[in-house]
Amino acid sequence: MAVMNCFLLPSNHDSPQTAIDGLQQHHRNAEHIETVQLPAGEAVIAQWRESESITVDEQNIDITKHAITAWIPNPSGPGLLGVAVTSNNTEDWTHIADMAKGIFETVEWNPINDETNTATAFAW
To answer: Range of 90's domain?
Structure first.
């Protein structure tokens, strides 16, 4: 099973490149980080893996949580869009991450509003 989450975070970046630089610095300890060009603009994609052990009926069970998130700066104003896919299915994680990257390719910002000169929403 995979879970997808979308969220818009405040960001007062001067330009999308400033946001990209900050995101690269912030996620420098990620298991994998890359900067890609998406239809919604340049984005930072970060992948994480976290392992933990839980006890069930006196047996330790190892669980690995995986996450991949595309951080997409608003190209014309404040805000960062985060699109995340998480799963604890290690066996299929490669396929899930590929699916997530396909989802990231479908995200677009709505056209710039002439009155505010910003693209404040996104669409699939």
So the answer is: 2-51+62-112
